[in-house]
Amino acid sequence: MTEAGAAHTEAPTGRAARELFGRAERLLETARAVLADHGRAVDAVRGALDPLLDALVGRELAAIPVSRLKDVTEGRLRIGAVEEAGYGTVGQVHAASPYELRQIPGVGAQTADQALAAARQIAHAVRDTVSVRVDVDAPDEPTTALVVALNRLVEAGPDVRRACDAARGLVARLEPLLATAGPAGGRLRMLFTGRAARERARAAALCVRTAVAEAQERELPLLFGQVSVDLLRAPESAPGAWVDFELRSAEYYSLLAEMSGTGPDRDAAEGFLPAGIADRVRGLRLDDAHLRVSLRGYQSFGARFALAQKRVILGDEMGLGKTVQAIAALAHLTARGETHFLVVCPASVLINWTREIRARSTLRALPVHGPERREAFTEWCESGGVALTTFDALHTLPDAWGGAVRPGMLVVDEAHFVKNPATRRARSVAGWAERTERVLYLTGTPMENRVEEFRSLVRQLRPELAPAVSTTHGAAGSHAFRRAVAPAYLRRNQVDVLSELPALVQVDEWEEFSEEDLGVYREAVDSGQFMRMRRAAYARPATSAKLNRLCELVAEAESNGLKVVVFSYFREVLATVEEALGEGVFGPLSGTVPAARRQELVDGFGATEGHAVLLSQIQAGGVGLNMQAASVVILCEPQIKPTMEHQAVARAHRMGQIRTVQVHRLLATDSVDQRMLDILARKDRLFDSYARRSDVAEATPDAVDVSDGSLARRIVEEEQRRLAAER
Length: 727
Hints:
Helix content is about 55%, strand content about 10%.
């Protein structure tokens, strides 16, 4: 019931009012408590963060010559005496007290105060530019304190923001209402209250009843209680917090940017959109009630862009989370009453979409793929959710329009797959797009380099824009191109929006065996050969799901000018990859290649302008070689020695790396890969954490070794039993 409508019902007075006010006060108490609990958690983070920021600012100021103080005061400040006294940097002046500066001959009180004010101004400007980077390989005490403090908020999850927003709104709404409604709690008090005040009290009492009822309907007391419990739990141990940081560092850095006030430039985070469009997008409030993750600012903007503009292409550079932005848009529409959504993607990423939707939202993911796709499609038509299908399967689905099923949004991943309107897949997608109000195309390919492709895609979404898109826009550069196509296109680059993020983003790429893959895998399992099971996914290159996904990742990296290093334990797998990728590939590096030749290959890889691919056995490339030219790492299979995988990734993710490193681990569902990960996950993660960061582990790759024969036998036996049960 609304507050306006409540005025037409009878206002509670006397005992009924007192009971109502009591419930409202208890509700307010829980709201104030969750805000206080959150405030303490935030204060703990700021208490750990401030010394780290101060140290960073101090280092920057120590490199700025004291003469810069003149620039701040436009030359009015005379600092010759200060320089002669040995103050050579702004940092030295900033650290001095007014008394110390006044003791310098020729420096009076006014000059000392002006010098300190100028130094503070520079320090404030520097503080806005520095950001704390967390080095997991060198966890000192101050950084550990910060990670532990952040862990409390990360563990509490996105419910914290929802609870705090609701609590602040409730406090702002209820407190003045209760103050005005007070006289309604006693009949005698109402008797001695003026007529106007009585009317205000009755109206306020009705509004209090409405507010309490709405809070109960939204289950706010339960939300407040759960969040307070999360925020008041005992602090995580330092090793446990570090392990959690490694598993989801992006969430930590998102909070860190929020707390420190640092982050990407707003224009860059908003894709340099024209002011009118950016204002419209900012004005849309994203409903995240169905999300299980917190979004970064640029991700929230991307989701809102899709919702505000309705038919768009999101072209963020790979690694920026286009999938989660699409899921956020679907979650928002779900909260607004939409029930059916359709995602079309390549078969190689359908499993990842299914996992991402289930992990990052409360939405129901329903794969519509394979022999039973028609039954699954019928179920989706009847029950709703997010239907996930492939480009090749889309045209085989029944016509849902007769049943009046219209998706709240159509999402097309790797949208450049439908750039040719003459193909069957493009016609199928276009048919759905024509009859769907909201359409979101996702592609990591920079469209300003492929204007004809973009014109084709935008014609499907916004035909009126297509004639205005010309090749001269692309030739003029990315900013000119984006301004021309702003109503339908948003792209952000890593360098613009990930400045404060860790230089490591890890993605598990789950694939389903093709029929040929599965046949080879079954033979390997029947033979009991563990290593053969591990490489079975590449035995039939023409139909290999893993190899197909690897080629897609390399192609996307090529379109973005990124270098790629591909690791595998097996030389046969690398040979297969080399043949699939064709000429121009460096390597493969292996144990049989002399050390000098290995370094030559790495140097040549690094010296190549733009995109290049380096192949390496993980045993050979994982130790002693620096591959920081690569910003994309592909692991062909999971490793049974965790330190080996860790050290291989560290070849690219190390000092000197200037881009975020993306690590893609190729995995096959219902296979030896999944068994290995399950077993490794059950090991003591804290021990692994210590070992990975120890000198012994760095010197000895086998320090954390779970590759003994018993483990291999156990996996083989588990797989033999599972496959036998399926026959």
